[in-house]
Write a structure and sequence with these properties.
Elements (H helix, E strand, L loop, with lengths): L1 E2 H4 L5 E10 L2 E4 L1 E2 L13 E5 L4 E9 L6 E5 L11 E6 L1 H20 L4 E5 L4 E7 L7 H14 L3 E7 H6 L17 E7 L3 E4 L14 E8 L4 E8 L2
Parallel strand pairs: 1-4
Antiparallel strand pairs: 2-3, 2-8, 3-7, 5-6, 5-8, 6-7, 9-10, 10-15, 11-12, 12-13, 14-15
Length: 235
């Protein structure tokens, strides 16, 4: 399957062919729909058939194999037949908010010298949990530093390295409990130029200026060492 979103996170739609459909689940030969993973929710949207009919997609999840994406149709929706040509269209407003949020969490990770213990991306609110027993910054400090990164308008891009290269650079892995996805012989990194570099398969903005107005709304104590940094978009 061709994962259009992986090379072009700004693609809102693509032409595709149905490979298989049944039990409310649809597989295509290519897709712009991002499947749930890495703390980022799966995309929603619709498939537009050649006759103009549409199939609402309420979730997108990973299949049994690497690069297998499953589009989950709304309950009771009629499914297209294998071989049917469709246009896959994501809910762009929701996706773009996810892209902004996900990149903002990477920026926070770079600003705080602590390993990641968990994260969740949402359209309205996101969070990153950190092994940060004695915070040396307030929410206002972090919000101000984020604003500086936004103002710098730094490039954000994917970078690929081999499994062996990642093994030789363990410092790139910032998560304490979740290992980067493997199985393809190479690993995708997300680079915020001059700010952060770490494994990630999610969708992100192309420049930090696209983050817009983002703020840390709260830093919560979630245990002896764990601190939760909550993030919201202000526009």
């Amino acid at each position: 399957m061709e994962l259009v979103f992986r090379d072009d996170a700004y693609a809102r739609s693509c032409e595709a062919t149905v490979i298989r459909a049944g039990d409310g689940r649809i597989r295509l030969d290519r897709t712009v729909f991002y499947p749930t993973g890495g703390g980022q929710p799966g995309d929603t949207g619709r498939l537009v058939l050649g006759d103009g009919d549409t199939v609402a997609i309420v979730d997108t999840v990973k299949g049994d194999r690497p690069e297998d994406v499953v589009h989950v149709a709304a309950d009771g929706a009629g499914l297209p037949a294998p071989g049917a040509a469709v246009t896959a269209e994501i809910d762009w407003d929701r996706r773009f908010r996810h892209m902004r949020m996900h990149t903002a969490l990477h920026a926070i990770c770079a600003l705080v010298d602590a390993e990641i213990t968990g994260a969740s991306v949402g359209a309205e609110k996101s969070r990153i949990d950190l092994d940060w027993p004695e915070p040396d910054m307030t929410r206002d400090d972090l919000t101000g530093k984020l604003a500086e990164i936004v103002a710098a308008d730094r490039p954000v891009r994917p970078v690929w390295i081999t499994d062996e290269e990642l093994d030789a650079r363990p410092e790139l892995v910032r998560t304490m409990s979740v290992a980067p996805p493997r199985g393809l012989g190479r690993v995708r990194l997300l680079e915020i130029e001059g700010v952060d570099l770490q494994p990630c398969g999610g969708t992100h903005v192309a420049r930090t200026g696209h983050l817009g107005k983002v703020a840390v709304s709260k830093i919560e104590n979630k245990g002896r060492r764990n601190r939760r940094v909550n993030v919201v978009l202000l526009d």
